[in-house]
Amino acid sequence: MSWRRVSLKLIGYSATATVVVSSIAYKYGQRNCSINIPQGDSFPNGSTTRLTDLKPPKYCSDVSKFIPELKNCGIQIVNSKPEIEHHTGNDFTTHKPLANEVPEYVAYPKTTEEVSQLLKICNREKIPVVPFSGGSSLEGHFHSTRPGSIVVDTSKMNKILAINENDLDVVVQAGVNWQQLNSALQPYELFFGTDCGPQGLISGMIGTNASGINASRYGAMSANVISITAVLADGTIVKTRQRPRKSSAGYNLTNLFIGSEGTLAIVTEAVCKVYPKPRSETVVVVQFPSILEATKTVARVFRVGIQPSAIELLDGDMMHCLNYSGYITRPWLELPTVFFKIGGINDVVVKENVSVLEEITKENQAKSFTFAENKQEQEELFSARKNAFYAMINWGKNEIDEDVRIWVTDIAVPLSRLSSVLHEINKMIKASKFRSIILAHAGDGNFHADIFYKENEKVQVEALVDQMIKLGLRNEGTATGEHGIGNAKRRFLELELGNDTINMMRKIKVSLDPNRILNPDKIFKIDPNDKGEY
């Protein structure tokens, strides 16, 4: 046998062995890699993931086995009855958690690194993780929909890491309360522009893209967050960008996380914009014969170039609740009322804006026009708006039922549609058996039609709310201007955005969180067996 034949024979054996080994390695790799990759066409093929592309997620059956390991990372883990109850639900949401939707443990990390260690373990063992911030959400955002869930409460990550007064930004941990932040900014004559409910913490505000009274001028969280530090499902720590106000460096990952409700990552730090306090400011209260004149005034104010810090509309029924409550220092006409906050660099600018505003309101048949001459009067005038929520509860408990409930809607429409939509909603309410008030962040077309009902009327009130939301959607609006989707408004997201858009979102979700451990079942369905009502 020639050396050539021997060589070829050896090469043949070598090639055969290589093919066999490669085939085994490929099959072994396939088997192991498939653990963390959803089956079917969901990943990596295709640009979207339909719910039917997914298999039901599988989660850890005994979380307690891994608690010692988590504690060894220095993370505080608790499961006392008061802690579990506090992290199960709240009194604000109309969609209460089911009897089995109870977390098994609550974790209190204090650093980004602790969150990373926790998620590495939870991802490895497929333990569902529910992020928790201030606990005041209205749409079931922190319901533990999966057995064996660990709630990750970021409230102890509450340090203000830097105040960059000359750059007009701050670096904060996720658990900083926005009012706490404003207190720290007072010596610098700065403030944070997003002012949601008083319990709001930065991470939850990012998760829901929260806004508030100041949004007409300063915007929602999406306009006020420069950069985010977050921990992905597998424990990877990412920072979305550096600190400059503008950047074209890659994908806008900051805004990917804003509004994601803890389904893509756990936010641990943020760089947020802050603003100089207006050197001069006043409050103007204007009352109108109808909502039509009130909303026409609001639209005209923007068209002439005035930029109020806040524009809040309360309908006549809300003004009745305020008069009834005794929480205010003076009675008001029970008519649609707009509260304006107008600030500027000096008194001359503010007075000029007030003068222009007064002319606009006269053109729209204003019944009264009142403005504050000093700080005390500002607080007195705006106290009516600040006390609206408590006045509403007080009236409902005394005039309807001690156990009355309030269904808070959160529709937003283009400003040009606000008047007609509110008119139609008033007609819906009058045709029903329910009483309601309307409170609107009129500057950005966002309003809350808050309906009083009793527990045995939930089916009827829900049908009314469905009509209202669908009316908003038909007018190019949204089901939620600032509260988020959670697990209570998922069906409206389909009507608003369509299945293809939701399938794209689901694709992003399973790409970043293939085991589907992060806040399962929020925003859209991730389990083909999910038969949830909403």
From TrEMBL:
GO terms for biological process: lactate catabolic process. Residues 1-18 form the signal peptide. It is found in: Mitochondrion. Keywords: FAD, Flavoprotein, Mitochondrion, Oxidoreductase, Signal, Transit peptide. InterPro entries: FAD-bd_oxidored_4_C, FAD-bd_PCMH, FAD-bd_PCMH-like_sf, FAD-bd_PCMH_sub2, FAD-linked_Oxase-like_C, Oxid_FAD_bind_N, Vanillyl_alc_oxidase_C-sub2. GO terms for molecular function: D-lactate dehydrogenase (cytochrome) activity; D-lactate dehydrogenase (NAD+) activity; FAD binding. The keyword Hydrolase does not apply. It comes from the Eukaryota. GO terms for cellular component: mitochondrion. Its EC number is 1.1.2.4. Pfam families: FAD-oxidase_C (PF02913), FAD_binding_4 (PF01565). Residues 98-277 form the FAD-binding PCMH-type domain. It catalyses: (R)-lactate + 2 Fe(III)-[cytochrome c] = 2 Fe(II)-[cytochrome c] + pyruvate + 2 H(+). Its cofactor is FAD. The keyword Amino-acid biosynthesis does not apply. Belongs to the FAD-binding oxidoreductase/transferase type 4 family. PANTHER family: AER321WP, D-LACTATE DEHYDROGENASE. Catalyzes the stereospecific oxidation of D-lactate to pyruvate. This is D-lactate dehydrogenase (cytochrome).
